[in-house]
Structure formats: C-alpha cells, structure tokens
Task: inverse folding
C-alpha cells in the first residue's frame, strides 16, 4: 500500500467506500453499501485533501461541515478528534454519511479537473468508528432553564432542533404522529439505503439527554393545536413537506396508480414487521412505471426490483443531462450532468422527455394496464421553466400494471396549524420571517416545512438554525452556533 502523503492527491486515486455488487444486493434488503473499510484506506483518502486556502467544500456543504479539519485528522489517525470536529456542525453524521448526495464533493477544488476527495465516505467512517468505539454518549445539560419547547415532527430537522435546544437547558418535547420516531428517515428511505437501527440509537441518546418523545401524537388528531401554544413557551414545526404533487390527467382514479411515498412507507413498515393494509402495494410480477427522476423515484425502482417486478421503467419529463459539464455550468456549481443511480445500476429502463398524457384501462377491470405518453422536445424560458413542447413521437403506450407517482411535494400535509395563525407562503411552505418564525407569535418552522422538499443535510441545518432562533427568542441571546447555510437551498428533484 502506498504511504499517505501531505500532497496525497498527486499520488493517490479516489476510492470511496463502495457498494455491494448490484446482481447480489438486488435479492435482499440489506444495505447496499460495502460493510467494511480499513483505517489505512480512509487515511489515504484523507491525504488527498488539499487543505485549500478557500475550502469550497465547506461552501458547498449546507451545514458548513469543517471538512478539511476532519480529513486531516483521519489522515493523521486521530479519529476521536475527527468525530468531535464532525459533531461540531452535524448532529447526526450517519444520516448524511449514508444518504446525502454530497454537494461538498461537487464543490471540492479537486473536482475542477480531477476526482474529488471522498468526503462522504470519510464522514461515514468517522461516525461508524465513533459508535463502534463507544465515543458517542449522551450529553445532558448541566443546568435547566424554565422554558419548555414543543417540537412537532421527529425527522432530521426536528431531532436536530430538539437536541440543540435541550443541550442549552430547555425542556423539549417532540410530538410525532407516526407510531415510531424518525420521520421519513424511518418510513421514507428504504432499509437497503439506511437501516433503521441507526435512528434508534440516536433516539436512545436524545432520550438519555432528557428529551421527551410522544408518538402517535398527531396535531389536529390526538393533540389539540392550541395546547401547544398554551403549554409551551415556543413551538417548532418540523413536519416535513408530504403533500404530494399529483397528475391531473385521464385515468388518475384507476387502481394501481399510487403515490410513490405510500409505496415506500408500506415497504418500510413491512420490513419492520408492522401490520399491513388489506391490499398492500406490491410490484411482484408487475410491469412498473415510476414517474419522476429524483431520489424518491430511484428508491421506488430499487424496491420494485426487490419485489420481483416483471419490468421497471423510470420516466423523467426533462431531458437527460449531459455526461460532461455544459459551458454555462462551471465549477464550483453543482454539476448538471448525468450519473446512473444505484437503482438503475440494478436494472430497469430509464426514459427522458416523456410527457404522460393518460392512464388507461384497456381490459375494463378498473385497474391501470397501460400508460399513454408522448416523446417531446421542450422549450424553456430564461429562468429554465418549461414553456412549450414539440411532440416528436405521439401515441406511445407503455405497459403499466403499477404506476408510482414520484414528481415531488407541494408543502406540509394538511393544515392543523391554521387555527394558531400559521400562514402559508406561495410555494405551500409555512410563511416565516428572517427569524424562522411563522405568522403566529412564538411558532417557528424548520426543514422541508419551511423551505420546501430538499435534502436531509438541509433539514439538519434548518433544525440547528431554528434552535438558535428559538433560544434567542426565549432568552434574548444565544450561544448556539450558526450554520453557513442560506435560505435559498437547492430543492431536491
């Protein structure tokens, strides 16, 4: 093995922690990632970090992870210090280390003309070693304030806000409408991408730090919204953005046309041994069409593979991105290039610039069996919005026994907070000011509920920031750290 060098990028190629072979992993629900890595391997990869004068990787990271520091500490084999540096900006590095698309790597200086540092792999390795060595322990506050805060939602934003507020001594109660904690980390992300015991051990840590959790506590269902403002000094709404974007086309009412998230939630519940619906959504022996080219769509494709689908077609309405950066997309912008997803590595067909026009029932049994579509060429305005289309091929018919709609979300689901005076912005998210406070005094919003559907790393940053704002609201000042994020995040497809 080549010894690491301070200028390792000149001597060592990029080798991230890999994935299991696609032909093997498609037959089980174990994590797709290679389970083992070596200290020497990650040390070499850490040596590739250039310790830039302007660390653009940190600018690319929504929570401002101090990446050069922990790259260097791993290179020097000081993993405990690397973990402390990682936790300084990220409450749950395993959440991001396993699920984040790593915008930090896109912004790495090496990415200008070479392969970037394996930042995501190093992050994952640091926190994995931290748990394995017993370095991650509860950190309860030494003193308690007289303030009580309600956090509604237990996804990454809610949990990060709760931990930050608890650590400065406030009494925090987290309300979760589902039967288990974790939000879409629990029920939206498949086991084969992120096993749920990773959430459980964080919940155990937070509970030992003094946070109170209430499950089956849906606001507007089992919890009266007014009790939140009556019983708590501040409220944080971190309920996500689970109102689905739909397709208003003929045949939408047919059986077999389902929302993607309903499919993923059912599968996660099945994997956890939970009670199932009488007629669960299952892809076995079916021709499956997934509408949407983002992460949710990819997760549906991979789940359908594991169900034994007869075939899977993933359809995107936009053009296929180029393999190389276009001239108007320079580094360090996120590259608008095509990369095959882990799900497409496992099989299936991927189509682009397909406009779905109808769901059809040619057999007359009330179930979809064909998707009607057109192959199109779009015209765009200066902001990149689709404005018109040229039909290149009409009357396309695609076999479809199961259609999964994965075209995004429009904001928080339902409106149980309206009676509190919480308004909505034009994009469907909660209307908030520069303090992240909604139109209701003392009620704040964070995560997807505040900024629209985006990435786990953005949610953690939002949770940390809203905790800082709530602490300042309650006490007049705050020592909680500010992140480097802005309120203009890249929205997840």
Result:
């Amino acid at each position: 093995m080549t010894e690491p060098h301070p200028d390792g990028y000149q001597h060592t190629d990029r080798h991230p922690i890999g994935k299991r072979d696609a032909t093997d992993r498609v037959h089980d629900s174990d994590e797709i990632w290679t389970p083992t890595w070596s200290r020497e391997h990650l040390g070499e990869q850490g040596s590739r970090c250039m310790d830039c004068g302007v660390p653009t990787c940190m600018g690319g990271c929504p929570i401002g992870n101090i990446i050069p520091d922990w790259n260097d500490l791993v290179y020097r084999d000081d993993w405990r210090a690397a973990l402390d540096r990682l936790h300084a900006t990220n409450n749950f590095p395993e959440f991001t280390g396993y699920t984040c698309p790593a915008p930090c790597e896109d912004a790495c200086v090496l990415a200008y003309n070479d392969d970037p540092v394996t930042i995501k792999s190093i992050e994952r390795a640091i926190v994995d070693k931290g748990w394995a060595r017993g370095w991650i322990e509860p950190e309860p506050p030494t003193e308690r304030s007289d303030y009580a805060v309600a956090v509604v939602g237990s996804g990454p934003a809610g949990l990060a806000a709760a931990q930050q507020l608890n650590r400065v001594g406030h009494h925090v109660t987290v309300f979760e409408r589902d039967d288990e904690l974790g939000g879409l980390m629990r029920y939206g992300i498949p086991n084969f991408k992120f096993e749920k015991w990773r959430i459980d051990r964080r919940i155990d840590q937070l509970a030992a730090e003094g946070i109170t959790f209430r499950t089956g506590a849906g606001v507007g269902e089992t919890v009266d919204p007014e009790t939140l403002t009556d019983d708590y000094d501040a409220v944080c709404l971190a309920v996500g953005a689970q109102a689905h974007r739909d397709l208003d086309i003929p045949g939408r009412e047919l059986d077999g046309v389902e929302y993607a998230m309903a499919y993923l939630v059912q599968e996660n519940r099945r994997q956890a041994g939970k009670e199932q619906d009488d007629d669960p959504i299952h892809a076995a022996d079916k021709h499956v069409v997934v509408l949407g080219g983002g992460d949710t769509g990819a997760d549906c494709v991979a789940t359908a593979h594991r169900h034994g689908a007869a075939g899977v077609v993933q359809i995107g309405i936009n053009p296929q991105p180029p393999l190389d950066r276009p001239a108007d997309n320079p580094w360090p912008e996120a590259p608008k290039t095509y990369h095959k997803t882990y799900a497409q590595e496992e099989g299936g067909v991927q189509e682009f610039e397909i406009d779905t026009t109808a769901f059809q029932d040619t057999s007359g049994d009330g179930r979809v069996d064909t998707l009607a579509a057109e192959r199109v060429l779009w015209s765009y305005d200066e902001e990149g919005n689709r404005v018109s289309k040229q039909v290149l091929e009409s009357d396309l018919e695609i076999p479809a026994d199961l259609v999964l709609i994965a075209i995004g979300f429009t904001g928080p689901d339902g409106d149980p907070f309206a009676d509190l005076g919480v308004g909505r912005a034009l994009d469907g998210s909660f209307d908030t000011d520069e303090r992240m406070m909604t139109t209701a005094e003392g009620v704040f919003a964070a995560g997807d509920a505040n900024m629209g559907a985006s990435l786990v790393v953005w949610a953690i940053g939002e949770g940390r920031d809203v905790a800082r704002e709530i602490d300042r609201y309650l006490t007049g000042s705050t020592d909680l750290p500010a992140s480097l994020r802005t309120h203009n995040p890249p929205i997840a497809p």
